[in-house]
Amino acid sequence: MTDEVGAQRTKVQQIADDLKAAIERGDYGPGDRLPGENALAAQYGVASLTARRALKVLSTEGLVESKKGAGARVLSFRPIRRRGIPRVASGQWGSGRSIWSADDHRAPDVDQITVDEDAAPPEHVRDVLELGPDETACVRSRRYVLEGRPVMLAASYLPQALVAGSPITQADTGPGGIYARLADLGHAPTRFREEIRVRLPTADEAARLSIPTDRSVIKLARTAFDADGRAVEINEMTLDSAAYVLDYEFDA
Amino acid sequence: MTDEVGAQRTKVQQIADDLKAAIERGDYGPGDRLPGENALAAQYGVASLTARRALKVLSTEGLVESKKGAGARVLSFRPIRRRGIPRVASGQWGSGRSIWSADDHRAPDVDQITVDEDAAPPEHVRDVLELGPDETACVRSRRYVLEGRPVMLAASYLPQALVAGSPITQADTGPGGIYARLADLGHAPTRFREEIRVRLPTADEAARLSIPTDRSVIKLARTAFDADGRAVEINEMTLDSAAYVLDYEFDA
């Protein structure tokens, strides 16, 4: 990139960094309007396009909502804290304070669910579930919303031969959900693996999550193993990166 | 957004999704050149700007490197697998296959390190370390590189009063590193908490990691607690999101 483009990008980020710090300090609270692009342009001595791009960084990150004519308003949504490992003896450790502020007490609800009892899973799922070339999977696809906002997509894959005829193939799996039903079948999960990566959303993911196409998603694949070490379920989750703080606590 | 802008964005993503799928299938291997923007524009019946934006999605995600005149070449860099929890009895679980291909065997090296024995930490660090208003922290800042590519920044904060005069205040902390030295001081870490969120990089983070300003970073804060439940270290890491797969394995 040329020096001029580089300098302009740095300016965009500096303005964005300043605005984010001001929000973090509480100078602007939920519902407050940030300075407009003309005010910012004058304040920093930059073109209004540069100021507009700085404001766009904040809307990409989900910190503000920009509406034509109304400027950028600070959003009140607090990220959801997702604990990967069930918490034990929580009060015992340190101040109990977290690095990042997030909501411990709300859980999103399922607003869309489809079950395909007999589907051909993607290759990487087939590999991890150790399915033969003719074997299929039961796929449970859900969308989760919080305060009307879609925050996560999830697709669970289970070996079709293992779960055929069980409530796992129904929309409502009953009390305790999939893991309780796997226990009923003699395959209670005893160990989990969570793999996490970050990338831009596909067209379908951006549409279903209603997020800007330049906001990253967190891909979180959770594999459940039974006591024999067999992979019995893979849950591939797609999280709006602005909506979550992930949290893992474990002994040394 | 207007329907026209929306339709164009969707087209950008569809082309990007197709190219990513082709790379995943192996149609294009490391070093191969993707079709240029004119070829893609003709193939999809879109403007060349649309095709250019699709190629930019791939360079933002770190899948290709774009050079003027040379087009977009597929990169060979494999993400690093970072295990949050030390692995036990690895062979025992399932096929041993992971959802995402990543490198288990390479670890990045430190290429920059600075130690400030007596610094005023940010407020959220002060809170979690339970430092009084006059107390300070020892801050160890490092940058990690792999194959010459910066992949992670890390800043460790430890209570100054706890570590003053110990090798923790030196660039070289000796065998076993910070945790072994905390053990020498009678504060061996016995429990860890890792908190993860994703956001766009600050100007400084993008510059130090040499990443595009529109590629997200993973913020990973690891807090170490001693046997008394006291927070003795916070390591705030900033990861190039294209360079890492995070991995957590634990019992149900």
TrEMBL record, chains A, B:
Keywords: DNA-binding, Transcription, Transcription regulation
Domain HTH gntR-type positions: 9-77
One of the GO biological process terms: negative regulation of DNA-templated transcription
MF annotations from Gene Ontology: DNA binding; DNA-binding transcription factor activity
InterPro entries with a match to the protein in the record: Bact_HTH_transcr_reg, Chorismate_lyase_/UTRA_dom_sf, Tscrpt_reg_HTH_GntR, UTRA, WH-like_DNA-bd_sf, WH_DNA-bd_sf
A Pfam cross-reference name: UTRA
Name recorded for this polypeptide: GntR family transcriptional regulator
